[in-house]
Structure formats: structure tokens, C-alpha cells
Amino acid sequence: MQYIKAIHIIFVITWFAGLFYLPRLFVYIREADEKKQSHDLRAQLILMADRLLYIITWPSAVLTFIFGNWIMIKTGYYKIMLTSGGSWMGIKYLLVIALYAYHISLDVFLRKLKNNALTMNSFKLRLYNEIPTVLLIAIVMLVVVKSNISAIYGVFGLLILVVVLISASYLYRRARNK
């Protein structure tokens, strides 16, 4: 079982690498569009995003799902998800589902970018890029702390994190526009 957990963690890491870098490529593509930079630069960034999504990120997401559910079945975690002692696992599973929804949205964004149909500007994409950070922190805290975490403190901590990330994005935007 330890090997399965190790493989699961490896694919979680490679999946997150894609989830962190792909929206950053989207920001660069939108900035290239906004600054009317060369078509070659845009084409190269689209190619990089396409390869990242379909060669690394999607396979990692699928393998994360397979090995994660394998662990849940083999360890019996699926049995305790709806009990008070296992509620952390149910919440974690919901957060992981949100992460898959985010991943699917990136696929939609890339398709729109390829057709010049994405309406989000680079700043909104920067903010959107912070979603996996918040989800990662929430998931790791749930897995490590488990039932000892207070839901109120957890939600409050995540709200503070979101405010800090958004504030940092606005400060970066202001400094960049000077």
C-alpha cells in the first residue's frame, strides 16, 4: 500500500505543477494579445499550454484519481467519509472535486484561447490562478490535521489567505502599471 500512496503523491505533485503553470501561460498569452506582440510568440505559448495540459496535466489528474480512489477502497476510508470522525475525508473529497472542476475550466479556457474567444483579461487570469493554491492548502491541512481541525478556524484561515492573495495581486498590478 505504501507504494500506491507514493505513486498517488507523485501524480498529485505533477498534476498541481500543471495546474499552477497552465494559468500562468494563459496570462502570458493574454498579455501578448493585449500588447499586440508577435503571432509567433502567441503560437509558441499556445503550443506549450497545449502540451502541458494534454501530456502532463490530464494524465496526472487521471492517475491521481485512480490511485487516490484505490487507496480509499483498500484502506476503507470510503466507509468513514460520512461519519463524524471521517468528515475530513468527505470534505477533502469535495475539495478534490472542486479541483477537477477547476482543471476542466482550464481545458475550456485553452480551447477559447486557441480561437481568440477568451474574454478574461490577464489580471483576472492572475486571480483565477490562485484557486489551486487555496485548494491545495485546504486539502493538505485536512489530510494532516484531520478531525482535530475546527471548521470555523479552517474557513477563517482560508478567507484570510484569499484576502492576502487578492491584495498581493492588486499590489503587483499597481506596481507594474507605474
UniProtKB/TrEMBL annotation:
Which key words are in the record?
Answer: Cell membrane, Heme, Iron, Membrane, Metal-binding, Oxidoreductase, Transmembrane, Transmembrane helix
- Necessary cofactors: heme b
Q: What class of enzyme is it?
A: oxidoreductase
Pathways per UniProt: Porphyrin-containing compound metabolism; protoporphyrin-IX biosynthesis; protoporphyrin-IX from protoporphyrinogen-IX: step 1/1
Main localization is: membrane
Topological type in the membrane: Multi-pass membrane protein
Single GO cellular component term: plasma membrane
Where is heme annotated to bind? H8, K92
InterPro entries found in the cross-reference section: HemJ-like
List the molecular function annotations (GO) for this entry: metal ion binding; protoporphyrinogen oxidase activity
Give yes or no: UniProt keyword Ribosomal protein: no
Kindly list the places in or outside the cell where this protein is found, as annotated in its UniProt entry.
Cell membrane
Q: How is the cofactor bound, in the record's words? A: Binds 1 heme b (iron(II)-protoporphyrin IX) group per subunit.
Q: Tell me the leader sequence span.
A: none
- Name the family the entry cites: Belongs to the HemJ family.
**Could you give the subunit structure recorded for this chain?**
Homodimer.
Q: What is this protein called?
A: Protoporphyrinogen IX oxidase
